[in-house]
Amino acid sequence: MSGNTQESNGVNGNTDTIPLGRYLWTRIKQVGVNRIFGVPGDFNLTLLDHIYDVEGLEWVGNTNELNAAYAADGYARTMHGAGCLVTTHGVGELSALNGIAGSMTEQVRVIHVVGQTSRMMQNKKMMIHHSIGPDPDHQVFNKASTNFRVAAAELQSEQGAVEEIDRVLRECYVKSGPVYIFVPIDIVDLQVPAAALERPLDLSPSKDSKALEDATQAVLTALYASKSPAIFVDCLVDRHNAVSELEALISKVPCPIFSTNMGKGIVDETHPNYLGVYNGTVSALGVAAAIEKSDCVLVVGSLASDTNSGGFTRKVLAENAIYFDANSTTVKGTKYATTPLKPLLAAVSSQIKSSQAPSASIPALPPRPQEDDISSAELTQSSLWPTLAAFLQPHDVIFGETGTAAFGIPDSTFPAKIQWITQTYYGSIGWATPAALGSEMALQDQSAAGTRPRGRTLLVTGDGSMMLTAQEIGNMVKQNLSPLIIIVNNAGYTIERVIHGAHQSYNDIVPFAYQHLLPFFNMSPEQAAANFHRAATKAELDEILALERVRDPVGYAKGPQVIEVVVDKMDVPWRLATQIATRGPEAVKEMTDAGFKVRDMEHGDGFWA
Ligand SMILES: Cc1ncc(C[n+]2csc(CCOP(=O)(O)OP(=O)(O)O)c2C)c(N)n1
Ligand SMILES: [Mg+2]
Questions:
Q1: Nearest to 179, CA basis, from 194, 165, 162, 158
Q2: H or E element, residue 115
Q3: CA 603, CA 1: separation in Å to the nearest integer?
Q4: Please, what are the domains in the chain?
Q5: How far apart are alpha carbons 550 and 544 in whole angstroms?
Q6: Residue 488 phi, psi (nearest 5)
Q7: Helix, strand, coil percentages, rounded to 5, for the chain
Q8: Of 296, 297, 290, which Cα lies nearest the Cα of 276?
C-alpha cells in the first residue's frame, strides 16, 4: 500500500474518519477483490452506493443470490484469493446459503456481506418484510449460517467495527473459508476512523516456529528412511496457495506423482514422474499398485470425500504416509498441530538435503485398455473427454460440473498449466455455470494486473445441471465475457440414472432448445447463430473445436460460445460406473440390469466386461 492517505484509503479529502460502508469496501478491495457479486435489496442499497466510491471496485450483480454465491466462489478459486457477494436481509442471505455451504466445505474464501434491518427494527422485533412470523428475531438468518462460515462480524455499532471487519477478512484468508459481515442499514453511513486503512492487513497464517520445526524434522527423518516415496497431490494444496512450495518439493524428491479427482492439474501432468489419478479401486490400470507399494506416501492437501477417494477404497496405510493437511501434519501416525501447509512445505523443501533424499524409480504403467465403443462415429463419453483435453491450452481454466463431466474429465491427461475446478465434494448441481462467470472475471482481472496470462474459461456442464442456473448465461452475455459453455445433452440426469432408477421419469428433465439460449439473453440473432454449435458425432465436434472463434473466444470477444454435445443417455464414463460399483454387487446388478456397462475391476483386462 502507498503511504499516500488520499490514494490508498480512497478518501476525497484528508479526513480522519470515513463512512463505515466506505471503510468496508476499501478494505475488501485492498485484500484483492475487484468485483462484487450479489443482488440489491432495500436493506443494502445505501451500502452498495459506497462500492462506487472505491476506485477499481466494480459492482457486477447477478440474477439471483445463489448464483452470486457461486460466482464469488468461482472468482475466488481462479484468483487464488477471495470472492465477495452482497445480499439483503432474510430472502437474499438465505438464497445464498447453499452456495456458501459449498465454499465452506471446499475451503473457498468468500466474503458475504449482508445488509440487515436497522438496529431499532431488530431491537423492537418489528414485523419488517422478509422477517419470520410475529415478534420476529431478525438475527434468525444470521444464526442459520453459523455452521457455514469460518468467522462473522455481527456489527451493531460503529464502535469497534473497523477492528471486526479487519479480523474477519484476515480469518477468511487464514482459514480459507467463507466469512460473514452483517451491516444493519442504519450504521452504513456512521463515521469510523480511516487510519487503519494505512496498515496492510496481515493475511498470512500465524506461525508456530517450534511446531513447524518439529514437524519438518519428523518429515525429513521419515523421508530419508524411505526407499520408495511417492507424492499424492489433492485440491487443498491449491486452496491454501501452496503450489509453488509443492513444486519445490517435487524437484527435490524424484519419485512417482499421483493426483486425485479434485487435485488434477495442480502438478504438471506432462511431468515424466506423473502417473495419473489415484482413486482407490477406481483408478486406471497399474496406478493403485504403483502408489500402494510405496513405503512413504506424501499425501498433500487431502480432501478425502467418497467422490474423491473412489468411495473410500484408497489403500494408503497411515504407517506408510505423511499427511500434509491444511493446518496440521501427521507423520506415520504422529500428529503435529499448528503447521500450516504453505510454510511447512516451504520448510521441508528448503531443508531437504539432496544427498540424503531418496529417489524412487518410476514404474511403467500397463497400456490403457480401450473402450469397446472407441470406433463409433457418434459422440461417446469415451471419446469426449480425451478430445476436450487435447483442445486445452496452457492457462485455461476448466470447470467440471457434478455429473458425468466431473467423473469423465479426470480420465484425461491435461497439458501443463491447466486449472481444473470441480465441486466434487459438495456437489451442488448448477454451481459451475455462475462459478464460470466468476472465473472469467478473475481471468480478466489477473491479465489486467499482469499476474496471469489470459486463459480461457471452459465450462463443462450437464443438461440437468444447466437448468438450475441458466439465467447467469444472460449475465455472461451482458458482461461480454467469452467462456466456452459445453453442455452435455444426454436427455436427463444420467449420473442419477446410473445410481438408481435408470428409466424412471424422475431422471428425465425439461429439454432445452439450446440454440435459443443466447438470443433469449439478447445476443443479436446473427451473433447468436455464429456462437452456437451442436455436435452429435465426433467429426462434428472436431470441426467445431477447430473454429477460430472457439479456439480463441477471448480474441474474438463477441460473447460466450455455446457448444451442445449430444451423447446417449445410458452412456457413462467408466470411472463413474466403477465408482458406483464400489457400493457392492447389488449396485453392479442394478446397473447391468438397466443396461449400463460396468468395468471388470477384478481382472482389469478391459474397461468393459
Ligand atoms: C442442488 C442439487 N440438487 C440435486 C442434486 C442431485 N444430483 C446430483 S447429479 C444430478 C444430475 C446431474 O445431471 P446432469 O447435469 O444432466 O449431468 P449428467 O450426469 O447427465 O451428465 C442430480 C439431480 C445435487 N447434487 N445438487
Ligand atoms: Mg444430463
A1: 165
A2: strand 110-116
A3: 61
A4: 5-198 (3.40.50.970), 209-351 (3.40.50.1220), 381-594 (3.40.50.970)
A5: 7
A6: -85, 105
A7: 40, 15, 45
A8: 290
> CA-to-CA distance for 99 and 110, rounded, in angstroms?
10
Report the half-sphere exposure of 158 (CA within 13 A, side-chain side): 17
Active-site residue, 42 included: yes
Q: How far is the CA of 513 from the centre of ligand 2 (A)?
A: 14
CB atoms within 10 A of CB 277: 24
Q: Cell numbers 518439529 correspond to what residue?
A: 214
CA-based max dimension of the chain? 75
Is the confidence at residue 522, as pLDDT, over 60? yes
Q: Which one, of 260, 264, 268, 238, lies nearest residue 345 by Cα? A: 238
Where do the DSSP E strands lie in 239-308? 257-259, 274-277, 296-300
Residues with C-beta less than 6 Å from any ligand 1 atom:
401-405, 427-430, 462-465, 488, 490, 493-496
181 φ/ψ angles, rounded to the nearest 5 degrees: -130, 110
Q: Is 65 a catalytic residue?
A: yes
In the residue annotation, 286 being an active-site residue is answered as no
Grid coordinates 501432468 are at which residue? Answer: 269
C-alpha cell, 151? 468467522
- Within 13 Å, how many C-alpha atoms sit on residue 584's CB side? 1
The mean pLDDT value for 358-378 works out to: 89
| pLDDT value at residue 10 | 45
User: How far apart, in whole angstroms, are the C-alpha atoms of residue 340 and residue 427?
Assistant: 26
Question: Distance between terminal CA atoms of the chain?
Answer: 62
Q: Residue ranges of the alpha helices (H) in 272-380?
A: 287-292, 341-351
Distance 462 CA to ligand 1 centre (A): 8
Instruction: Give the whole-angstrom CA distance, residue 331 versus residue 321.
Output: 7
Atom of ligand 1 nearest to the CA of 466: 15
Query: Cell digits for 273?
Result: 514422474
Overall residue count recorded for the chain in this entry: 609
Name the closest ligand to CA 429: 1
Helices (H), 192-242: 209-225, 236-239
H or E, element range at 172 = helix 161-175
- Please answer whether residues 116 and 91 qualify as being in contact, where contact means their C-beta atoms are separated by less than 8 angstroms: no
Counting other chains too, the contacts that 289-292 makes at CB distance below 8 Å and 24 or more residues apart are 290/230, 290/256, 290/258, 290/363, 290/365, 291/230, 291/232, 291/256, 291/258, 291/316, 292/316
At 608, the pLDDT band (50, 70, 90 cuts) reads: low
d(CA 266, CA 281): 22
* pLDDT of residue 1 exceeding 50: no
* Radius of gyration (C-alpha) of the chain in whole angstroms: 25
Ligand 1 nearest-atom number relative to CA 461: 15
Q: Cα–Cα distances in Å, from 271 out to 266, 358, 416, 423, 510?
A: 11, 18, 8, 25, 43
Residue type for position 341: L
Cα 432 from Cα 401, distance rounded (Å): 5
Q: How far is 394 from 269, CA to CA, in rounded Å?
A: 12
| Confidence band, pLDDT 50/70/90 cuts, at residue 579 | confident
Reported pTM: 0.96
